[in-house]
């Protein structure tokens, strides 16, 4: 794709500008609000998304957007940017570093570019259909662990009140010795960089996970929902080093 390089350049610029604004508010927050779905939102969330949209619109006025804070714009456009300005807002509010900005570009129903940036710890993942995944500009890859028993598994604990999810966690826990609840963006970063073999969650929206479809794949891993659909954008999410994916799908199906 001839214009992918330009998409990358503008996207990284938007991420950098939004990150500067986010870090301005980190551990120095003004008023915190609660949205209709009872999730928190801050001035940083809204301003970061506005910065990303305005930066991209200036370069590509015909493109559409789907953002967590401002919803849809030009949803029938050929190119759609999907934005989560702060994934892990609760961590951000409490002064914890494990939050990130997620940005992806969808073309003809598929994600062709993905970025995930955790500014407080200095980790930026990038991947596209033409480039393998990089961490801060350097190649990164999933691990080569072949046995679930030897793996480090992470999950998002936000759905512990869902019986099915609790059953899955219990079933996986019986098989592994290293299991933690590093949720949100950081869980995917751990898989993409070979520091964890599995991350799973229930309840994510498109903006929470779209970038990781391509980031995990281009790092050598496998991404899908709990039914094995590699292109699903919501409800359930499973990211692995690829070697453990089918086994995880079986455990999930039988739980």
From TrEMBL:
GO terms for biological process: inositol metabolic process; signal transduction. Its cofactor is Mg(2+). One of its GO terms (molecular function) is metal ion binding. Keywords: Hydrolase, Magnesium, Metal-binding. The keyword Hydrolase applies. SUPFAM superfamilies: Carbohydrate phosphatase. InterPro entries: Inositol_monoP_metal-BS, Inositol_monophosphatase-like. Mg(2+) binds at residues 68, 84, 86-87, 208. The keyword Cytoplasm does not apply. This is Inositol-phosphate phosphatase. It comes from Candidatus Roizmanbacteria bacterium CG_4_9_14_0_2_um_filter_39_13. The lineage of its organism: Bacteria, Candidatus Roizmaniibacteriota.
């Amino acid at each position: 794709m001839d214009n992918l390089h330009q998409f990358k350049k503008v996207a990284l610029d938007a991420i950098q500008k939004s990150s500067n604004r986010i870090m301005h508010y980190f551990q120095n927050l003004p008023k915190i609000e609660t949205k209709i779905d009872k999730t928190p939102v801050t001035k940083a969330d809204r301003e970061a998304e506005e910065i990303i949209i305005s930066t991209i619109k200036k370069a590509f006025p015909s493109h559409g957007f789907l953002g967590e804070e401002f919803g849809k714009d030009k949803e029938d456009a050929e190119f759609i940017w999907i934005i989560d300005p702060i994934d892990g807002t609760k961590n951000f509010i409490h002064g914890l570093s494990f939050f990130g900005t997620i940005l992806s570009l969808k073309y003809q129903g598929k994600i062709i570019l993905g970025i995930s940036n955790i500014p407080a710890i200095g980790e930026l993942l990038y991947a596209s259909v033409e480039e393998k995944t990089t961490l801060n500009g350097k190649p990164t890859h999933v691990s080569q662990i072949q046995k679930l028993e030897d793996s480090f598994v992470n999950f998002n604990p936000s759905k512990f009140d869902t019986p099915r999810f609790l059953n899955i966690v219990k079933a996986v826990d019986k098989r592994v010795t290293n299991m933690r609840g590093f949720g949100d963006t950081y869980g995917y970063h751990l898989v993409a960089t070979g520091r964890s073999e599995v991350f799973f969650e229930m309840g994510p929206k498109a903006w929470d996970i779209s970038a990781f479809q391509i980031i995990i794949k281009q790092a050598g891993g496998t991404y899908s929902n709990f039914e094995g659909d590699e292109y699903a954008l919501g409800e359930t999410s499973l990211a692995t080093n690829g070697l453990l994916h089918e086994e995880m799908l079986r455990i999930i199906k039988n739980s």
